[in-house]
């Protein structure tokens, strides 16, 4: 009997088994001795919620898996107490002995015992036909009763159709029933390594830190991640565990001398030195590559975000959701190709506490009962992420997290065209509105791509224009914009969700921007009272260049309703909006696609209700049946007519349409020549404007070819 202890948390009883001195891996599905131990333990402690075998790594079997064994444990207790005694007649007693052996082995291998009972039943029936023995008739009744009991268990019902030709002792069938959550000793997460039975792998790819499987279970798709940590040798596991323990004793996180921005560098070097020292002490040969690999893993689990960093290395993942209570619910991810997927990972309460500690440290913001919301942005390695965390009393079951990963470089219109979010015509129209200083609000539900389109449109602003961005969480990549030549000032304001903060409210940021010179204004998201200041500034003409922003709304009128009725913006100020861009998520088979579904202009000649007075004019509408965007007649567009009045080289509407067509052609060339990233696109836009004004677009295409062939032109 392996030593164990019982831990009780609230109404859950967890058995922790010490298998460190056991000479085999303690897996119920593979090891008959471990299954025997577990079933016999359940006969004594039937109300166990989960059982954890610790052997360096931890192997946890949850309530649903133990439920299969609890039924077997109860049947074993009942049958073992009433095993019939031999009769003293040799040819009869051999069947009694077989029955006794089968029942004795039931806890080690229930499926083999069931099959053996079925086969014994046939043998006894044949023998009864020959001898008509009353003793065998009684034994047959006992065997049938045992078979019926096992027939009623969930374990047998799940495998019954696979038992034809079953070989006694074959344990591969148990791998379809039991799949422990495995946690290496230096990690505090639980992870199912085995792909669910009867599932089909529909996609597979690798990152630097994991193998990724997209699995179709027949009911839904799942995200199955196997980190490189699980391919380490036992020696490397042990080394990492010892190093993490030593680092926990000396915790630089508690040092006032270390700035949070430098923590990762400090911890990386400290971890590396610790690994070298331990390797020398235990006489372990560490190559340079192996040392770098182990140091990176150690950093992730000491000063980093743990398994979250591994998920973020998958560039297909945009959102990560962790729901309370931690340890019970799987992590969910939003995949750019497959939408929301359940993962094979669970964050333990310990890891959740560690994650909260890191978030508070790096953000400088509180998260406690007095401040139950933390909203911040972080840069982890090359990933920019936005993190929202909640706790009690707002989240009654404990910590919950929402993590959004931003692209390390901003999205561009050619990239969004390539990924089919919008077409060339829609992109050209939006680029035109931005270039010539219109006010644009991008609306849609969460995750529809509002911020992605916002940053793409920002890159359509001419380099000669100064830009001021206002955000409560820094999502716009202003540092990148500055590196590629933009004159950008970033203002950070207080989140409307923050209870305690030294930051100024957003309306102060907007008023300050009006005193910082002639600029285009980019507002990360219109949320609250700042809307009044923003729309007032637009109405009186205080903002001469483009104004771009995002807002949550489902329709143009829904946007009006929210801004005017919910946020308190006067109707006259709302008229300052020129263009409303609607985004949404479209279901395409098993995949979710982000789509531009509507471009609507707001005319100015209405008094009470823009919908009733036909002030919303659709310039473009997405048709889901044909998967195409239909551009309506633009000749009566109020916004385009106003641009003609202001721009000298547009003599009439024909010349304006000619420019739009040229812009559409330019975007098609950028996609054709794979000129997709921010710096390339900005330079290509500046060259396009110059060549168009000079009337030399033929030379422009030659320039793009050079840009494609010689990146050093950039």
UniProtKB/TrEMBL annotation:
Fetch the Pfam families from UniProt.
T2SSE (PF00437)
Listed GO molecular functions?
Answer: ATP hydrolysis activity
**InterPro entries attached to this UniProt entry:** P-loop_NTPase (IPR027417), T2SS/T4SS_dom (IPR001482), T4SS_GSP_E_ATPase (IPR050921)
* Residues covered by the Bacterial type II secretion system protein E domain: 351-593
Q: Which domain of life is it from?
A: Archaea
Q: Which family does it belong to?
A: Belongs to the GSP E family.
Listed PANTHER family: TWITCHING MOTILITY PROTEIN PILT, TYPE IV PILUS RETRACTATION ATPASE PILT
Q: What is this protein called?
A: NEQ425
